[in-house]
């Protein structure tokens, strides 16, 4: 077998994992996690509704992976709210650090605020492993190379989160995201999951 055929076979296997196997694993694991964690999710929803004085969920538009036209699909990322909606006398929201509640700090420090994202994984807008979806307002700032991070489905956790997280510069995060895009595999996903 020629070297070019070996490379082409390797690419085909990676694409098979990305297109078919990875999504199936994400679906099964998210459905299982939602089922097992449903008592905790219900409890956090009730406590959140009381602590936040209403809606316990935070929903924000984020860019997903690119569609056939090469444009990022925008989806609604769902989390538990960690900040209240207190406003100043002019009706403007107070700064984030003022609105972040003790309950919200607890949710963030334990990453429990991320649990509702299991619904995003279940519906296919998010994967378990992939580049973390950033704000849609950043889309215009990406270089062509950085934008490649959207060639795969975004994830609940990713290579940049497992290997550096907040200690990385923006450039280093994007480099890790693009590296992930070029090296997606079951073993790599497993490595990232255990490191996370």
Please describe what this structure looks like:
The longest helix is centred in the N-terminal third of the chain and has 49 residues, at 3-51. The model is unreliable at 1-14 (pLDDT under 50). The protein has eight helices and four strands. The protein is of the alpha+beta class and 196 residues long. α1 (3-51) crosses α4.
Notable characteristics:
about 50% helix; disordered N terminus; alpha+beta; about 200 residues; two-stranded parallel ribbon
Elements, N to C (H/E): HEEHHHEHEHHH
| Coarse structural class | alpha+beta
Overall geometric form: globular
Beta-strand content bin: 5-15%
Unreliable stretches: 1-14
Specify the helix fraction band: 40-55%
User: Oligomeric form of this entry?
Assistant: single chain
Biggest sheet: strand arrangement: 1-2
Number of helices: 8
First-last Cα distance: 38 Å
On the 0-100 scale, what is the average pLDDT? Answer: 88
Radius of gyration (Å):
19 Å
**Number of DSSP E strands:** 4
Largest sheet: 2 strands, antiparallel
């Amino acid at each position: 077998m020629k070297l070019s055929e070996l490379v082409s076979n390797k690419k085909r296997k990676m694409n098979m994992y990305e297109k078919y196997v990875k999504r199936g694993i994400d679906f099964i694991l998210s459905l299982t996690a939602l089922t097992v964690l449903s008592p905790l999710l219900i409890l956090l929803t009730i406590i959140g509704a009381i602590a936040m004085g209403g809606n316990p969920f935070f929903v924000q538009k984020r860019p997903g992976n690119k569609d056939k036209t090469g444009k990022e699909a925008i989806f609604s990322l769902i989390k538990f709210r960690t900040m209240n909606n207190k406003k100043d006398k002019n009706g403007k929201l107070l700064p984030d650090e003022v609105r972040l509640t003790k309950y919200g700090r607890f949710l963030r420090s334990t990453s429990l605020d991320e649990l509702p994202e299991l619904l995003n994984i279940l519906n296919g807008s998010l994967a378990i492993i992939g580049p973390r979806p950033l704000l849609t307002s950043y889309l215009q700032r990406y270089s062509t190379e950085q934008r490649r991070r959207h060639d795969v489905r975004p994830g609940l956790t990713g290579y940049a989160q497992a290997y550096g997280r907040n200690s990385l510069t923006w450039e280093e995060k994007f480099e890790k995201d693009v590296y992930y895009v070029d090296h997606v595999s079951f073993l790599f996903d497993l490595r990232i999951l255990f490191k996370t």
